[in-house]
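Dear support,

Our group has been running a series of protein-ligand predictions, and this particular one with NAP is the one our PI (initials K.S.) wants archived with full inputs and outputs. We had some confusion internally about which version of the output was final, so please treat the block below as the authoritative record. The input we submitted was:
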Amino acid sequence: MIDLSTKCVLVTGATGGIGKEIVTTCLSLGAKVIATGRNIEKLEEIKSNNNLLIIKCDLTNPEEVDHLLIHIDSLDGVVHCAGKIFPYPIKFIKEKHIHEVYSVNTETIITLTSQLFQRKLISKKASLIFMSSISVQHPYMGGSLYVSSKAAIEAFSRSVALEFATDGIRSNCIAPALVQTEIYEQTMNAYTEDQWDKIISQYPLGIGKPKDVANLAVFLLSDLSSWITGNIIPMDGGLLLNSNR
Ligand SMILES: NC(=O)c1ccc[n+]([C@@H]2O[C@H](COP(=O)([O-])OP(=O)(O)OC[C@H]3O[C@@H](n4cnc5c(N)ncnc54)[C@H](OP(=O)(O)O)[C@@H]3O)[C@@H](O)[C@H]2O)c1
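Confirmed final output from the archive:
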């Protein structure tokens, strides 16, 4: 049984499908959770709990990030779930599109992580989790900006693992394939019905659920995973089994 009762965990993107499930799973295992996102109504939908602190924060806004940081005392875990998908063909990419995707998926995550270390808010033996995507290994048409923004986060996570290993701090990425959330709906809308059916048929175990990802996240946050660091852990329902056919 995973026990997080001694842990305080920050979850970004807590209003999203995966983030919200991670928040509720952490709470059910006894963790104190600081949940953050932009949409306050969605944040308030998370069932109130004495161990839960909700803070509204647009991670691209430095003042709101400062406001978030002053509410943090010491963290044993961070799960970065904030993210944005933006399908766009390569030949039409302009600088503003790069900024739009990278600012949320890459820059805010790197600067928030840096700030947390600078202000000594990450405790020894903490576990950091970055949400990447299987698309780094298995790219999809139109996904170049999203995929490359996630590839940068994978490299960043491995660097965090190296720089902070002497404090017993671990850093890993979870790389899910399709999980049923709003991002999934947006991805689906970019395809015709036939194309989408073909995509779904490539998943031997079907499409993932937020709970699947949350289960791995709580394992990585717990002391049961204390020898795992610098890894990119795929969760793909068997998708990559089909990629070499
Ligand atoms: N679902 C999938 O199929 C899938 C697959 C692979 C990887 N992932 C990754 O897993 C993570 C979670 O995905 P999801 O499906 O749960 O996504 P989602 O439901 O679309 O949620 C995205 C989250 O990001 C937050 N966010 C976006 N821009 C932000 C900003 N500027 N500041 C603060 N928060 C911001 C949103 O907050 P607000 O709602 O408050 O705006 C929301 O909580 C993402 O990083 C995604 O790339 C998802």
